[in-house]
Specification:
heterodimer, A: 392 residues, alpha/beta, 8-stranded mixed β-sheet, 8 strands, 11% strand, B: 335 residues, Rossmann fold, 15 helices
Chain lengths: 392, 335
C-alpha cells in the first residue's frame, strides 16, 4: 500500500515544493538520528539541479557526507559544491555551522573592538558560547537570518535549506533561541549587573533584599568567581542588550512567513514519530507553514505483492518437500528467500502501521516515504537517489 | 557466552551509564539492561536525565516525576524502579539538604536564579542531574550515606548521547572553570571520584552503520582519555543472517531465477515476474547489508572492548520485546 492509497495521508511531493519560486527557506526538523542532514542535503541538491540557486546549512554532517559536499573546511562560510549538474542553471553552496564562531561574529558586529575583545575573553562568555545547551540552536537560527540577509543583499541564492541541530527534541530548535535570548536579556542577569535599573523605586527596597539573598546564596553555592564573571560579562554586553532577544524574535518571525516551509523528518519508529507529531502540532499552534513529513529508512519490499504469511506458508511447504527428498538443494535457496521476504515484509508492515497511526492523528499532512538504502549515503550520486525517492 | 573481560568489569559495577548516538535506541537498551538486572533478583533504579519520558513510554506507565516509581516486580524478588531527574527539583532538594533554605529558596526562584542555575550556568545543570544519580547510587537505609544497606543494588542511567556524554560526565572539569571553591565544587569532586572508579561503567549503544560506529569509536577514545571505564559496546538491532553461504553463492547463478519460479509454482504461489525478481532483489540487498555489517562489526571488535548483541525484533519492542532483549543480555553474561 503506497501512501497515496491512504486518504488520510496525501503524498508529499518535494518537486512541487522545490519548483515553487515563492518558497525561499526550507527548514528540516526532527529528532536525532532520523537522517535530517541527509534529507536536507538531498533536497538542496535536487533543487539546485532543477535550477534553483541554493545554499544548504548543515549542522553536524557525517564525515564522508561532508567530504562529498566539499565541507572539509570549517570556516563558517558557504562554499560551492563541485560536481553538480548545472544544466538547468542552478547552483549549490554548502556550509557547516561553527557555533562559537557565529557567536563571536555577533559580538564583534555589535560592540566596539575593545568591548568585543573584553567579551570574547570573558570565561563566562566562553562557557556560554561553547557549551550552553541552546547555543547551537540559537546560532543555527542566527546563521539562517544572516544567510537570508545576504541572499537579499546579493541575490546569489533564491533558496536556503537548513538542517537543524541534533537535539533530543525537534522542538528545541524553536524554543532554545528564545530561552537563550531571554536569559541574556532577562531580569536576573540585569539584577546581577545593576539591581536599581531593573526595579521600580517603591519595589526596590523589598525586592533587593530578595536579590541580595539570592546572589549571596548563589555566590556561596557556585563560588564568587562565577558571579563576578557573569557580572563583568553583563556589563561588557550592556550595549548589546535587547539585541539578542530582538534578533531571535526577527528570525522566529521569518519562520512564520509563507516563503518558509518546514519539512519534518522522522524514522518509522514510535519515538521518532512521536517527536514528529509534537513538532507538527507545535507548527500548527504557531501557524508555521508545514510542507510535509519525510519518513526515512522505510524497509523496501520489492516482492511486496507476496504477503509475509503466504511466504511463510510456502516456505514450510517447500521445506517439508525437501525433507522428503523431492525438492533437494534448489528448494532450500527458495525457502531461504521466502523466509527473508517474510521477515522484511513483517518489518515493513510494522513500520507502515506506525506511520498510519501518525497519519490518523494528523489527517491531511502530506507524507513521503524514503526506502532505507542498503549502504550509507556519502556521495552526490547517493544524494540524488534519495532525491528521487523524495519526489515520490 | 560471557567474555572474561566483560565478566571482570561487571563484577564491581553498580552504576551503568548508557549512551549512544541519537536513534540507536539507547533508552530501549538502558531499559532492557535494567530489566535484565532486576530479573536476577536485584533492586534496580533506571534514571533518565533529559526529560524525554522515554522510561515511562518504554514501560507504558504514566509520566515519571521527581519521585521514584516502581515499574516492575520480578518473581525472583528483583525490583525495577524508574526516575526522571529534573534539574530544578534536584537543586531545591540540594539547597534544602545543605542549606535548609526555606525562604531563600523561594527568593531564588522569584528572581529567576533557579532558572539561571538550572538552565544556563554552564555545567551546573549537569552537576545537579548527575548529583541526583550519585545520591541514589550511594543511598542507604541508614541515617547517613555509608551507613546501613544500599537501597539500590544497581543504577542504570539513560545518559545524553555520545556527542555530549563526556562533557556531561566530566562535571568536575566543567565546574572547575566557573566554581573554584564552595560546596558545589566539593560535590563535583565526590561525583567525579565515583564516576571514575570501578563501580561505574559506560556502555555505548550502536547500530551496525557507519555513523553510529564512527561515533562509538570516537566515544571510546574520548571516554578512555578522560579515565572513564568503558563497559561494553552494545550492538542494537542486529540483523540475523537469513541466507546461508550456499544461497549467497547461488545469487550469482543466472539459473536461480528459473529454479525459484519453479519452486514457487510447486508451492502454489503465483510466480509472477515482479515477485520472483523482487525476491532476488531482496536477497541481494540483504547480502549487501550483511557485508556492511560485517565490516562495521570488525571495526567495533578492533576496539578491544567487550561487545554485546541485541537482535532486531520483527515486531519491535512493544509488548514483550523488552523482556526478550533483557533475556538476550542475561544470556550473554550480563550480571
Amino acid at each position: 500500500m503506497s501512501p497515496t492509497a491512504d486518504r488520510a495521508m496525501p503524498a508529499f511531493d518535494i518537486d512541487t515544493l522545490i519548483s515553487d519560486a515563492h518558497v525561499g527557506v526550507v527548514v528540516c526538523c526532527g529528532s536525532g538520528g532520523v537522517g535530517k542532514t541527509t534529507t536536507a542535503a538531498a533536497l538542496a541538491l535536487r533543487a539546485a539541479e532543477a535550477g534553483r540557486r541554493v545554499v544548504v546549512l548543515t549542522i553536524d554532517p557525517a564525515r564522508r557526507l561532508a567530504q562529498s559536499l566539499g565541507l572539509s573546511e570549517l570556516d563558517n562560510t558557504p562554499r560551492p559544491v563541485q560536481g553538480i549538474d548545472a544544466a538547468a542553471g542552478g547552483t549549490l553552496d554548502a556550509m557547516m555551522l561553527d557555533m562559537k564562531r557565529t557567536f563571536d561574529d555577533v559580538v564583534e558586529a555589535h560592540a566596539t573592538p575593545e568591548k568585543a575583545a573584553q567579551i570574547l575573553a570573558n570565561p563566562f562568555y566562553q562557557a556560554v558560547s561553547s557549551s550552553f545547551a541552546g547555543t547551537q540552536e540559537y546560532m543555527a537560527m542566527e546563521k539562517l537570518g544572516q544567510l537570508r540577509a545576504q541572499a537579499e543583499r546579493t541575490g546569489q541564492w533564491d533558496l536556503i535549506v537548513v538542517d537543524t541541530p541534533p537535539s533530543r527534541s525537534a522542538l528545541d530548535f524553536l524554543d532554545a533561541p528564545k530561552r537563550l535570548g531571554s536569559f541574556l536579556d532577562g531580569r536576573f542577569i540585569r539584577l546581577l549587573s545593576a539591581p536599581a535599573k531593573a526595579s521600580g523605586r517603591a519595589y526596590l527596597k523589598v525586592f533587593s533584599v530578595g536579590v541580595n539573598l539570592a546572589t549571596n546564596t548563589l555566590g556561596k553555592i557556585l563560588g564568587g568567581q562565577m558571579l563576578t564573571d557573569v557580572q563583568t560579562f553583563v556589563a561588557a554586553l550592556d550595549t548589546m542588550f535587547g539585541g539578542f532577544r530582538e534578533r531571535a524574535d526577527v528570525t522566529y518571525a521569518l519562520l512564520k512567513e509563507d516563503a518558509t516551509a518546514f519539512v519534518v523528518v522522522a524514522a518509522p519508529e514510535r519515538d521518532a514519530l512521536r517527536e514528529a507529531a509534537y513538532f507538527v502540532d507545535r507548527l500548527g499552534e504557531e501557524r508555521m507553514p508545514l510542507a510535509g513529513l519525510v519518513v526515512n529508512r522505510i524497509q523496501a519490499v520489492p516482492a511486496g505483492a507476496l504477503s509475509a504469511a503466504r511466504a511463510l506458508a510456502a516456505a514450510e511447504q517447500l521445506a517439508e518437500g525437501s525433507d522428503q527428498g523431492s525438492g533437494g538443494q534448489a528448494a532450500s535457496a527458495t525457502v531461504e528467500l521466502l523466509r527473508l521476504h517474510a521477515a522484511l515484509a513483517t518489518t515493513a508492515d510494522r513500520q507502515r502501521a506506525q506511520v498510519s497511526r501518525f497519519a490518523a492523528g494528523h489527517p491531511g499532512i502530506p507524507v513521503v516515504e524514503v526506502p532505507a538504502a542498503a549502504t550509507d549515503i556519502h556521495d552526490l550520486q547517493g544524494l540524488r537517489s534519495i532525491g528521487v525517492a523524495l519526489a515520490g | 557466552m560471557p567474555s572474561p573481560a566483560l565478566a571482570r568489569s561487571l563484577t564491581d559495577a553498580r552504576l551503568h551509564v548508557v549512551t549512544g548516538k541519537g536513534g540507536t535506541g539507547k533508552t530501549t537498551v538502558a531499559a532492557a539492561l535494567a530489566l535484565a538486572l532486576a530479573a536476577q533478583g536485584r533492586r534496580v533504579l533506571l534514571a533518565e536525565v533529559e526529560g524525554r519520558q522515554g522510561i515511562s513510554q518504554a514501560f507504558d506507565v504514566p509520566p515519571l516525576g521527581d519521585d521514584e516509581v516502581r515499574l516492575v516486580t520480578d518473581p525472583s524478588g528483583g525490583e525495577l524502579w524508574g526516575l526522571s531527574v529534573d534539574a530544578k527539583p534536584a537543586l531545591m532538594e540540594y539547597l534544602q539538604t545543605f542549606y535548609k533554605l526555606g525562604r531563600a529558596g523561594a527568593a531564588l526562584e522569584k528572581v529567576g536564579a533557579i532558572d539561571f542555575a538550572t538552565t544556563i550556568a554552564p555545567g551546573v545543570r549537569d552537576v545537579l542531574l548527575i548529583g541526583k544519580v550519585y545520591e541514589a547510587t550511594g543511598r542507604t537505609d541508614g541515617a547517613r550515606r555509608g551507613q546501613g544497606r544500599l537501597v539500590y543494588d544497581s543504577v542504570v542511567l539513560d545518559a545524553p548521547p555520545t556527542g555530549r556524554v563526556v562533557r556531561f560526565l566530566n562535571v568536575n572539569h566543567e565546574v572547575a572553570d566557573i566554581a573554584r571553591v564552595g560546596p558545589i565544587r566539593g560535590q563535583a569532586e565526590s561525583i567525579t571520584r565515583m564516576l571514575r572508579d570501578r563501580s561505574t561503567l559506560v556502555h555505548i549503544v550502536t547500530l551496525l552503520e557507519e555513523m553510529p560506529v564512527q561515533e562509538s569509536v570516537d566515544a571510546i577514545a574520548e571516554l578512555t582519555a578522560h579515565r572513564f571505564g568503558v563497559g561494553a559496546v552494545i550492538v542494537n538491532l542486529e540483523r540475523e543472517a537469513l541466507l546461508s553461504a550456499a544461497t549467497r553463492a547461488a545469487l550469482d547463478d543466472p539459473a536461480l531465477e528459473e529454479r525459484v519460479r519453479a519452486d514457487l509454482t510447486a508451492a502454489r504461489v503465483r510466480a509472477s515476474g515482479p515477485v520472483v525478481r523482487g525476491l532476488l532483489a531482496e536477497a541481494e540487498d540483504h547480502v549487501e547489508r550483511l557485508l556492511l555489517e560485517d565490516e562495521m562489526r570488525a571495526e567495533i571488535r578492533s576496539q578491544d572492548v567487550p561487545v554485546l548483541h541485541l537482535p532486531a525484533l520483527p515486531g519491535g519492542v512493544d509488548g514483550g520485546g523488552l523482556s526478550v532483549l533483557a533475556q538476550a543480555l542475561t544470556e550473554q553474561g550480563v550480571r
